[in-house]
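Handout, section B. The chain below has 199 residues.
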Amino acid sequence: MKRSLPGRSRLTPNLVLRPFRRRDVDEILEAASSSLPELNRWLPWAHARYGRGDAVAFVRDSMSAWAEGRAFDFAIRHRDDPERHLGNISVWFTSRAQLVGEIGYWVRSDETGKGVGTEATAAALRVAFDELGMHRVVLRIAIGNTSSERIAEKLGFTREGVLREDVRVNGVWLDHSIWGLLDREYRAEKARYASVGWV
């Protein structure tokens, strides 16, 4: 089991996933700020006063987490427009002993519904299973976030249950559905991911 990952870009047919750099702050801020009305329904960090300091703190923590092997955050960019920030996707272990991990992501509002989340998540699954050797990967999705649930379904995850009042967002406790994918299920799905152009 590997503790860390090479800090290189991962390519899909349409996207580049790469580690964050200090100079990404302004692009993250622009993407997050333009999407706050949608993001702050589901994500506790997407508060109304989100600003440059939040983006700076995220990049700083992302770089140290990668170096320490705690979490692996990727900037999502189009291959044909690599300067425009489309969102973030992260992979991390929740149990190294049991080889269990989680993936979390967000996509800017004007890019949702275009397959970005599905393609980025398929690439993150390749990192989780092929590079980090995970046995099981989980997505936690706020109840009502049907776009993210659709991504889980398309990628072959199984909806396993509901975590009640799991995260507080804007003072409201949100339930989350829990979706799981096992290594053997991922192996069975890989060819399909490629055939539809996600990897």
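Note. The CA atoms of residues 63 and 115 lie 27 Å apart. Compare this with the example in section A.
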